Amino acid sequence: MASSSSSSFKSNRTIPILFIFVTFLSTPVLSNPLLSDSSSRNQTLRPRHELQKLKRIRTYLKKINKPAVKTIQSPDGDLIDCVQSHLQPAFDHPMLKGQKPLEPPERPKGHDSMNSTEFQLWAEYSGESCPEGTIPIRRTTEKDVLRANSIRRFGRRIRRGVRRDTMSSDHEHAVAFVNGDQYYGAKASINVWTPRVTDQYEFSLSQLWVISGTFGNDLNTIEAGWQVSPELYGDNYPRFFTYWTTDAYQATGCYNLLCSGFVQINNKIAIGAAISPRSSYHSRQFDIGIMIWKDPKHGHWWLEFGSGLLVGYWPSFLFSHLRSHASMIQFGGEIVNTKSMGYHTSTQMGSGHFADEGFGKASYFRNLQVVDWDNSLIPLNNLHLLADHPNCYDIKAGKNNVWGNYFYYGGPGRNSRCP
Questions:
Q1: What's this model's pTM, rounded to 2 decimal places?
Q2: 116 contacts 289 by C-beta, under 8 angstroms
Q3: In degrees to the nearest 10, what's the CA dihedral of 239, 132, 118, 205?
Q4: Which of 189, 181, 190, 249 is nearest to 215 (CA)?
Q5: Contact indicator for 227, 203 with CB cutoff of 8 Å
Q6: d(Cα 366, Cα 214) in Å, to the nearest integer?
Q7: How far apart are CA 404 and CA 397, in angstroms?
Q8: What is the pLDDT of residue 167?
Q9: How far is residue 121's CA from residue 285's CA, in Å, rounded to a whole number?
Q10: Which residues contact 179 (CB under 8 A, 6 or more apart)?
Q11: Which sequence positions are flagged as catalytic?
């Protein structure tokens, strides 16, 4: 970065002393291009503002990064902290203070019992998991927060991200959904890819949504799946993630464990960590299981990942409408289209290929099920499909005896039919 010209202060011998003092104060700011203004002179004149910003960020990091009994280095650069379960961010919540995680609930009837396997890069590389009584948490860094431009924005969807929200023209979806009944959970296996995301402030995700309320300010959602988000994580790895909100993404909720809410019980899965392995075009395919369901006994919403790993739960008191049941279940892909170059983004959804290309090329969801009032997994009836911009990203559904209800979806974004 260019420095201020020295010619402007040669005529006054007292000014260089002041200049050195101001530059010294500004050093932490100038060393980080993410904080710099277009003019270095403005930076030199505003060190106090930037130092105060850094101070706020470091205070926030002390709050969100809990003391670790062990730290594991991941090859993607992540630090995974093993934090005692009762010290995790959830227990900062006033209604959870002094409590401990609940015991696992009864899984829904009809749930396949499988051997539990973790599919994350940090665990695969190190061959380790966190000790019993602790949970793995991806450490948040200054760089993570600085990419979001503000603490308020970090870890949150400021703009709304649910289909049907006409105010969210920059969010595009290719989804399958059911509504018109009372739902107590959902399950699916989701194909994992590494879609290209062309702008730092865009993302590409594949997830299931558990939804209740209207699509106004009282919207409640619970979400889980995988996402590529350069702004949130600083790279292009697909990562296991969760999200929740009770007021349409306005003031409540967050990604992963970046606020108090979700209670984790698992010592092998780090929410927000990279998934490995991943699918390859016209080669090996890899998918993960996601199940969210409401515990009939306590009413909390539980999450299972992979092939049987119980991750934790969202306490029912976090929600308004979801304290009882969901009114819609949604599966599929979502991207953000900022049009930063003046035309439609080339950010990919799923594999980056359209649904018609089928297995090994297009991304898929398979074995779609919902949980009914009797805590039983049942097939879907009356599945609806919707693609906001089918020339950019599309969806095509089917059903057979092996995959049950399934669909292919996704696309490349900008192309000759999606200008």
A1: 0.85
A2: no
A3: -20
A4: 249
A5: yes
A6: 28
A7: 11
A8: 42
A9: 17
A10: 327, 328, 329, 384
A11: 223, 334
